[in-house]
Design goal:
The protein is an alpha/beta fold and 360 residues long. The chain is built from 11 helices and 21 strands. A 6-stranded mixed sheet has the order 19-18-10-1-20-21. It has a 5-stranded antiparallel sheet with strand order 11-14-17-16-15, with no helix packed on it. Helix 8 (158-179) links the parallel strand 7 and strand 8 (184-186).
Length: 360
């Protein structure tokens, strides 16, 4: 699997163009850096000029801090309040989404935190009455520890989105009144940037957008960072006469005389579709249909190929000669979303970093 560092840098630039001037970019590196590895995507982010990082687990927070010790790392709501102390003591900015989370941090003077507000997503966030209680307690401290607040939105419907923004602004106004204008306010994740570019907040936290995982119809200018997925043929099976075969665990398949099938090591275990929609691959720069798939392998129809060989390259995503299969095409062929296919593949296959499409 190859990662396109140039596409990532371009996506960062495109996302910045949708943010308010001077706003900080918090690169989201949760889910093990969207499957690419936390340290790897943190390095890509540093090279592209992002200012801070967001993670989904305490382990990811420690890895991100190790890779970027001088940059803020925000731990999203991800663990019981009892575990927040460990992250706070390590210099991670933690999330206060409940009264219990705040009370877990109350004795740690060195802690830094941001509030999470539920503005319509229905998941995490302090309700107004609890927020007012916590705000008063934090304001009374000799040295307040609050850096700001953030939210996520679950709907692009104009009315719901506008109501959510108004609700978020009430929290933001209170934070600035209590702790000053430097409070960080983030209400624009990936979909928020697309739905409402230029939101007047001083930070944004795009996630899947930076990795080019959203459908092209939604975000056509953002290119997949997952540049290519390749394998090799490890077995050729010749079809001496036309017959119907039971190939792998699929239904019976009719193949012509004189044809051949090839087996390559990439299957369900690696995230490829388990359904009837199998898609195509490239061999010698030509499309070849995948006809069956098992736990660890896929089988491709090589009928019409002259003397196919063991060891030949198979491209599942990427280009070969003048032909190409993109992430979005592969996902559509397998009847799943680009985001789902990305996570299926990125989390299970050996990775190689590519910057400017050059092996490093």
């Amino acid at each position: 699997m190859e990662i396109d560092g140039r596409a990532f840098a371009q996506n960062v630039a495109s996302a910045r163009a949708m943010m308010a001037p001077g706003a900080l970019m918090y690169q989201v590196v949760k889910a093990n850096g969207y499957g690419f590895g936390v340290e790897r995507v943190v390095r890509l982010g540093l090279a592209a000029g992002v200012e801070a990082f967001c993670v989904g687990t305490i382990e990811e927070a420690m890895r991100a801090k190790s890779a970027a010790p001088d940059r803020p790392v925000l731990l999203f709501t991800a663990c019981p309040p009892s575990l927040l102390k460990r992250a706070a003591r390590a210099g991670v900015v933690v999330t206060v989404n409940s009264l219990e989370a705040y009370e877990a941090l109350e004795t740690i003077a060195s802690a830094s935190f941001m509030f999470e507000f539920d503005c319509g997503f229905g998941r995490f966030g302090l309700p107004t009455d609890r927020f007012d209680v916590v705000l008063a307690r934090e304001k009374s401290r000799t040295k307040p520890r609050c850096l700001g607040g953030y939210t996520h939105f679950g709907s692009r419907a104009s009315l719901e989105f506008d109501q959510g923004l108004q609700y978020f602004d009430t929290f933001g106004t209170k934070l600035k009144a209590a702790f000053g204008e430097s409070q960080i306010l983030m209400a624009a994740a990936s979909h928020g940037l697309i739905w409402r570019p230029g939101l007047p907040y001083n930070a944004a936290h795009p996630g899947s957008l930076l990795y080019g995982m959203l459908p092209l119809a939604i975000a056509p200018e953002f290119q997949p960072v997952l540049h290519s997925v390749k394998s090799q043929i490890i077995q050729i099976n010749w079809i001496a006469e036309a017959r119907t075969l039971s190939v792998g665990y699929s239904s019976q398949i009719s193949l012509p005389a004189g044809g051949a099938t090839g087996v390559f090591p990439l299957g369900w275990n690696d995230g490829l579709s388990t359904g009837a929609a199998l898609g195509r691959v490239l061999v010698r720069g030509r499309p070849a249909p995948t006809i069956a798939r098992t736990l660890f392998h896929s089988i491709v129809d090589l009928s019409g190929f002259d003397e196919p060989l063991v060891g030949e390259e198979v491209v599942i995503i990427g280009s070969q000669n003048s032909e190409a299969i993109g992430l979005h095409e592969a996902a559509e062929a397998m009847a799943i979303s680009p985001t789902e296919l990305h996570f299926r593949l990125a989390g299970s296959i050996t990775r190689e970093s590519h910057a400017d499409l050059t092996r490093i």
